[in-house]
Automatic annotation (TrEMBL):
<dbReference type="InterPro" id="IPR011009">
    <property type="entry name" value="Kinase-like_dom_sf"/>
</dbReference>
<protein>
    <recommendedName>
        <fullName>S-methyl-5-thioribose kinase</fullName>
        <ecNumber>2.7.1.100</ecNumber>
    </recommendedName>
</protein>
<dbReference type="InterPro" id="IPR009212">
    <property type="entry name" value="Methylthioribose_kinase"/>
</dbReference>
<keyword id="KW-0808">Transferase</keyword>
<keyword id="KW-0418">Kinase</keyword>
<dbReference type="InterPro" id="IPR002575">
    <property type="entry name" value="Aminoglycoside_PTrfase"/>
</dbReference>
<feature type="domain" description="Aminoglycoside phosphotransferase">
    <location>
        <begin position="28"/>
        <end position="286"/>
    </location>
</feature>
<comment type="subunit">
    <text>Homodimer.</text>
</comment>
<keyword id="KW-0067">ATP-binding</keyword>
<keyword id="KW-0547">Nucleotide-binding</keyword>
<dbReference type="Pfam" id="PF01636">
    <property type="entry name" value="APH"/>
</dbReference>
<dbReference type="GO" id="GO:0046522">
    <property type="term" value="F:S-methyl-5-thioribose kinase activity"/>
</dbReference>
<comment type="similarity">
    <text>Belongs to the methylthioribose kinase family.</text>
</comment>
């Protein structure tokens, strides 16, 4: 029958036809779409003993509508990424029950008992001790396993060929790594940021560094990435008394620079810190960059001995990790800036009664991370930059 956009009323029959649901009379479906790009539905039975999530890619960006067409092929990239993630970090992603490439639809575990990390943080919660280490380990496991350190050369070439995701990469190249530094209709900002937005567009040194990061994003095929690892792509909670962290939405996945995943997570952590500072609710926010980096580095180093050889030796590991660290800082800077003056602003800042002082600090931090990333050699150096920020 071919691709069709599924509406709420279509979901019971769809799930039954696909073998995901037995009783057509005991199902309630509601749409819970929240992200910028796709549609999500939750199906549950009356007793609450069974539930599923269904995510479908539309042929456009959901929040923009048909005026911003986007191939639903991105769901193929997401399904492929989940397959890889299930091999290396099955406990840190939702269970995937099936993928239907004809309808670009994924049927997955219902995570609605958990909360989106950004939502919780915006409500004043702390990160807790598990979230950032889990993210760091997940990035290390996925990136090691899909790098030239964890695969044969031939398998890596096949992975590269299978993982191209051109339209989604172009979105990132545009909205994260270009538009905030030029005049563009996607850009907008609070009038209290006029001077900084203008200064960033006129800053040729900043633009050259962003060009370097953009080119790294385009050419550095280090490992398979999640591709959009912000605080809205993480759910957290407690199940049976144990902390749960789940990373979802890897539709931007492609083989790129590892620092892009870490950088996006760090950007969102640093912005959450600015919100907490503004509200006087600062708790463990300032530890999150360090915790995720330490977990990433420890896991990557632990995996390394299985592949060490004449050229990929311990000296090269140190050099490689240093490069990942530096690039992560730069990508964090670009993500902070786009989330304040470019496309898809962060509610961390937009929901503040006066978003201007925190937004100004965030913009200055983003610029520092991009311009001085090679001088900031450890998490303490980043802390010093944050502590010295002015509005
Ligand atoms: C058109 S998509 C805009 C943003 O939403 C996604 O979550 C990505 O972060 C993308 O940059
Ligand atoms: Mg998303």
């Amino acid at each position: 029958m071919g691709y069709r956009i599924l509406e709420t009323d279509d979901i019971p029959a769809y799930l039954r036809e696909r073998g995901h649901w037995d009783d057509p009379d005991d199902i309630t479906v509601r749409e819970v779409s929240d992200g910028n790009v796709n549609r999500v539905f939750l199906a549950s039975n009356a007793s609450g003993t069974r539930s599923l999530a269904l995510k479908q890619a539309l042929p456009w960006v959901r929040v923009a509508g048909p005026s911003w067409p986007l191939s639903p092929d991105r769901a193929d990239a997401e399904a492929r990424a989940y397959e890889r993630l299930a091999e290396v970090a099955p406990d840190a992603i939702p269970a995937v029950h099936g993928y239907d490439p004809e309808h670009y639809a994924l049927v997955m575990e219902d995570l609605s008992d958990l909360e989106v990390l950004r939502t919780l943080l915006n409500e004043g919660a702390a990160y807790g001790p598990h979230t950032s280490p889990t993210i760091g380990r997940l990035v290390a496991r996925l990136s090691f396993a899909t790098s030239d350190f964890g695969m044969t050369s031939a398998d890596r070439k096949a992975l590269l060929a299978a993982s191209v995701n051109p339209e989604l990469c172009e979105i990132t190249e545009d909205v994260v790594l270009s538009e905030p530094y030029i005049e563009h209709e996607h850009n907008h900002w609070h009038p209290g940021l006029d001077d900084l937005a203008a200064a960033f567009r006129a800053d040729t040194a900043l633009r050259t560094e962003v060009a370097d990061l953009r080119h790294t994003f385009m050419t550095s095929a280090q490992a398979l990435l999640h591709g959009d690892l912000h605080s809205g792509s993480v759910m957290v909670g407690v199940r049976e008394g144990a902390p749960v962290v789940r990373v979802f939405d890897p539709e931007f996945s492609f083989v790129g620079p590892i620092g892009f995943d870490l950088g996006l997570y760090w950007a969102n952590a640093l912005v959450s810190e600015e919100r907490a500072r503004a509200l006087g609710t600062l708790s463990d926010h300032a530890d999150q960059l360090r915790l995720s980096w330490e977990a990433f580095e420890a896991e990557f180093r632990a995996l390394w001995p299985s592949r060490v050889d004449t050229f990929f030796d311990d000296a090269y590991l140190d050099r490689f990790l240093h490069r990942v660290w530096t690039e992560s800082l730069g990508f964090a800077g670009t993500e902070i800036i786009r989330r304040v003056i470019g496309f898809a602003h962060l509610t961390d800042l937009t929901t503040l009664a006066d978003p201007v002082p925190a937004s100004r600090r965030a913009l200055r931090l983003g610029r520092e991370l991009i311009l001085h990333r090679t001088r900031l050699t450890d998490p303490a150096a980043v802390r010093a930059v944050v502590d010295a920020l002015t509005p």
